[in-house]
Design goal:
- This protein has about 90 residues and is mainly alpha-helical.
- About 65% of the residues lie in helices and about 0% in strands.
- The chain contains 3 helices and no strands.
- Helix 1 packs antiparallel against helix 3.
- It is extended and about 45 Å long.
- The protein starts with 20 loop residues before the first helix and ends with a helix.
Length: about 90
């Protein structure tokens, strides 16, 4: 049975700017990983080490948050510039 769309779901509308989805996805991942247990953190650590990253799950969570904030700040600066130009 297909699920019904949630009215406020930004992914369910055809007019959603797909650039707005990336910060949302980063936030979802950041929140999920911050609240997982030790077993999941261990699995993440194994996966990161396989890619040569030794910072552990905390590093990944921090990078997700920092990337999201950078995207939000860049979007905010772009919007300010657009308002400035008019």
């Amino acid at each position: 049975m297909p699920t019904r769309p949630i009215p406020d779901d930004p992914t369910a509308t055809s007019d959603t700017n797909h650039g707005d989805l990336l910060p949302l996805l980063l936030e979802i991942c950041e929140d999920f990983l911050a609240h997982t247990g030790p077993a999941t953190h261990h699995e993440i650590d194994i996966h990161l080490r396989a890619h040569g990253i030794t910072g552990g799950p905390g590093w990944l969570i921090d990078m997700l948050g920092l990337t999201r904030l950078r995207l939000q700040n860049a979007t905010h600066r772009d919007e300010q510039g657009a308002h400035h130009d008019t």
